[in-house]
Amino acid sequence: MQNKYTDWKQALRSGLLGGVIVVVLSLIGIVAAFINTYVIHDVISLGELLILGPVMALSLTAIRKATNKQPGFLLLTAAISGLASGLVILALAGLGQVINLRAMFLNASPDLYAIYAYQQAPIPGLLLRLLVCVIVSLLTAGFTLLPARIKTALGQGLLYIVVIGLMGRLITMMLSNWGFVAILFQWMFAANSLSLIGAIVLFLLTAGLAYWRYGRPKVKRITDPKKQKVVRWGTLAGLGVILIFLPNILGLWFSEILDNVGLFILMGLGLNIVVGFAGLLDLGYVAFYAIGAYTIGVLTSPELGFFNWTFWQAFPVALLMAFISGLLLGLPILKMRGDYLAIVTLGFGEIIRILVLSDWLKPWLGGTQGIQRIQRPVIGIEGVWTRTLTSQQDLYYLILAGIIVVAFVAIRLRDSRLGRTWMALREDEDVAVAMGINHVATKLTAFAMGALFSGIGGTLFAAKIGSIYPSSFQFLVSINILSLIIVGGMGSIPGVFVGALALIGLPELLREFAEYRYLFYGAALVAMMLTKPEGLWPEARHRLELHEEATPPPEAEAEPATENA
Amino acid sequence: MALLEVNNIHTYYGNIHALKGVSLKVEEGEIVCLIGGNGAGKTTTLRTISGALRPREGNIVFMGEDLAKYKPHQIVQKGIAMVPEGRRIFARMTVMENLEMGAYIRKDKQKVAEDLEWVFELLPRLKERRRQVGGTLSGGEQQMLATARALMARPRLLLMDEPSMGLAPVLVEAIFDTIVKINKEGTTILLVEQNALMALSVANRGYVLETGNIVMEDTGEALKKNPRVQKAYLGME
Ligand SMILES: Nc1ncnc2c1ncn2[C@@H]1O[C@H](COP(=O)(O)OP(=O)(O)OP(=O)(O)O)[C@@H](O)[C@H]1O
Ligand SMILES: [Mg+2]
């Protein structure tokens, strides 16, 4: 009896919380904003999902926490939770009729109440809303009672519908590049979302596949070393082919995103050496990006007309400039650690930006107007075949080549003696010095290598947009690069790729969410850091440190040999 | 000529006068121990010898050569390695990588590989755990690793700063056994310890340091019997 009582209270509490979440989401305006953003055309919208989602999620919590696990009881628990959520929503609507909430909350509008009431008259509409809340909660409970296999299949199917449905606009945009192939998929989509028939087919396919795969071993382990080799090279070749055709598959708009992500990967790989490997917190990293870009600009732009070099003539000079400025910045800050280092490097980044902005250097660097008409890179052999790389798709290949080179160098550095030395310095500078490490040279090489990579990023950036302005080299760029390293996993090379995709690529894909984009994005980031504090793809050693349970159990302090002494 | 001669050194931290004329000698093949209370200047003495701190007065002579002109990493190359206070292993590097860093200054790959075997023989526990990350080792294993790491430099003189700190009694004994073994195999040791009883038992000679001054010097056995030492450092009345 006691149990039942606490379970009810628990269900009630969950339900109320679910309702409150819906109310909050409504009052900040995102429910109304997305009521016409369909997941399945004319069937269910993102706005409706934002109402039903929290209701269902909190019913699920109530069911999970319930101590009495009898099916009937669970259904009751869910119903109570759903009812409570629905009542909270109704309370908002009711309150809105009596007093003018709009004075305080701009979004508590009649439109919102109409959405709550499914565009019906208030009384029957709101009762319908209440009923739906209870029904979806009951469905949630019913779902948990299903056998695991069916549950997995249903879950997968629904997940795919939501994800593909939300990405409908992006996918239709992508399809538009596919010519006649697009016709094969056209029926699946309707007005930037899934069509009903498309949703059904997608659901049957994905759920069916999940049902079939359930319980089967994921992939057969290949033990034969020869076959392993074939598989490895096969995967690499496949990946290569995909990477080569990616701009054609994805089209212009996605290529632009890819280029941006690529530039950030380049710089991330460089900063990862400085911060991740050597443990030197550099907040002025954007300076080297600027130096790379501006060197190209000054040397190639006919507008300034000093040199009129070609891109490839200027390229090595730009890298040299970045490298040398890395050394120069390294020199004065060798003795600094932690916070002090961060502040001084931050200052350095700002100095560079202010220098390029200054009137004093305007004749050479263009001041606020920046530098236009930067020479695009030309590839090929003069007289035989040449091509000027101008489009986003062309630049994609250049950036891809840059990334491959830089990633290769970064991997080699990490596994080298120098890489170990950086790591030792990061772990304990005093002891590293006591081991005989020359910390001056070691730190300087870290800075210079990082600067070099960033410089490469800068040159490609200049080549990509053809004109540069001081405003492209804000402090925020440094912070973004640092964040993508943290999100991916400090010191992890694959982490840089994942981090850049998540941090630079994702917000672009979230354009669907218009001005709420950063809200979703921020929520996703917080969730990510809470669930994976070591990063999305952490370096193996770091993973060990943060997830203690993953390490072999520490043995007792006693030595077996001395125990009987 | 002694292996190491510390002559009347004065070391400062800013205005703080930490060592006020410390002199000591270590002969080839000896274990010499330096005992003293908290803040007496034991760590400061070792750090001055290793070159991390510079004496304002006095000099340090190793194998007949004044160390004043050498940088810390060059002093390691001369043959002085240190097991720092509080272990301070490289926590996010594996046992193997820690040991490799210990041999950082050495170019003779062949000899390094042999010494690795030697170190694993001395401390077999480390061999089992060579792929484990340093930070996940137990306290005792970390101490072993710190010792092994210093040995990988194949020093003529090993400076050890409180190797028994924070370890269970059985482990303390094991550590001291290792110290004796290392010494028997030809490494001279200057040992700093709070655990005066154990340290004096294994040491040939000992020095007592109080607030930056050497106040006593004798053989290990004699110091153990000295009533003043017994009262202050051995907890006997
Ligand atoms: N970095 C520092 N800055 C200022 N004073 C310091 C510094 N390090 C040590 N001291 C001071 O120098 C004196 C000697 O310190 P030291 O670390 O050598 O003592 P110790 O004998 O090793 O003590 P313990 O047994 O506690 O390790 C102490 O008074 C200490 O406060
Ligand atoms: Mg000390």
What does this protein structure show overall?
The complex is a heterodimer of chains A (565) and B (237). Chain A is mostly helical and 565 residues long. Chain A folds into two domains: 145 residues; 299 residues, Orthogonal Bundle (ABC transporter involved in vitamin B12 uptake, BtuC). Helices cover 70% and strands 3% of the residues of chain A. Chain A is built from 24 helices and six strands. Chain A has a two-stranded antiparallel sheet with strand order 1-2. Chain A has a two-stranded antiparallel ribbon with strand order 3-4. In chain A, strands 5-6 form a two-stranded antiparallel sheet. In chain A, β3 and β4 form a beta hairpin. Chain A is elongated and about 75 Å long. The C terminus of chain A is likely disordered. Chain B is α/β, with parallel strands linked by helices and 237 residues long. Chain B folds into two domains: 155 residues, Rossmann fold, CATH 3.40.50; 56 residues, no CATH class. In chain B, 38% of the residues lie in helices and 27% in strands. Chain B has ten helices and ten strands. In chain B, the strands form two sheets. Chain B has a six-stranded mixed beta sheet, with helices on both faces. Chain B has a four-stranded antiparallel beta sheet with strand order 2-1-4-5, with helices on one face. In chain B, a hairpin with a 2-residue loop joins β9 and β10. Chain B starts with a strand and ends with a helix. In chain B, 50% of the residues are buried. The interface between A and B is large, with 32 and 39 residues. The structure holds adenosine-5'-triphosphate and magnesium ion (MG).
